Here is the input.
Amino acid sequence: MEVEDLRLVRGLQLAPRASFSVLGEVLGVHERTVARNYRRLRRAGILRVFGMVNPMAVGYQFWQVRVRCRPDASESLAMALAARDDIAWVGVTATGSEVSFSIRSLSAESRDLLLTRSLPRSARVLDIEAGVVLHIFLGLNARGWSELDGLLTAEESARLGGGEMPGTDATPVPPEPFDSALFDVLAADGRASTVRLAEAAGISEGRASRRLAMLLQSRTLIIDVDLAYRDFGVTCWAQIYFTVTPARLREVGAALARLPEVAFVAAMSGRDNLVASVVCRDLGHLYEFTSGSVAALDGVVSMEIVPFTNIIKQSGGLVVDGRLVDPATRAERH
Here is the structure.
């Protein structure tokens, strides 16, 4: 990928809703070129800017689930799970005998129906292990995948708001009846204009603009950038489950969040009290990462490394042949 494209991706990670003119000014490229490059990358399924409701801000229960199943059933099970709106991420392990997914839902009834009835009744499912997320250290618009940090100068990053990494704490705002319409549009296109948001919600553009600013400021709504990692030299994805000494849990979680290979890390209930999603160039890189950076962390009692051969869904959008596909509710591209 060209350096110009990589710099644009990094700029969008820092300021996903920045105008093309602002991005062009910071990156030293004409705004028409920025717009053309962005649309090309999006059409190619290399990046997707999307909005999501912060599950920790609105009372969602956010679960990490592992389903062990017959190897011949993993792909079909993963696809069925990926079709659900309340499931944000689905992957199949290297052996094909396990499907991992994350589910976020306000409806305990819907979640429990899936975890205690639908899945257990399937003859294809052998075992289910689920843990609720207690705290997210990294993964909610944490300035993007840090492997791309060096592509912008400190001054360029600062101009796009790339200073201190935002926290995960949030003070949600009271809901408005039209919020769901805003969320639907932004889930398909995180850069949707306030004109489009106003039309979808049936409100004035000024009100849509003010509401969007309030939702973002309170971190009730998060705008993030999803990447087709293969185009960035990544061929190995893995989930790592940790048992960490309780007194060191905060320290280890924060340390993992600072490592460039880590895309998500959270404290959770269950047998393992910490989970991390990592992206590496290859298996050799994964080995060096786990035996070096991770092994050096004080407080890690044990870890289980679970590589994936296929990611079916990430950040709420489907992945087809390594390319990102917008959700079914995708809005017209701009």
Observations:
- Confidence is low (pLDDT under 50) at residues 163-167, 328-334.
- The chain is about 35% helix and 30% strand.
- The first strand starts at residue 47 and ends at 53.
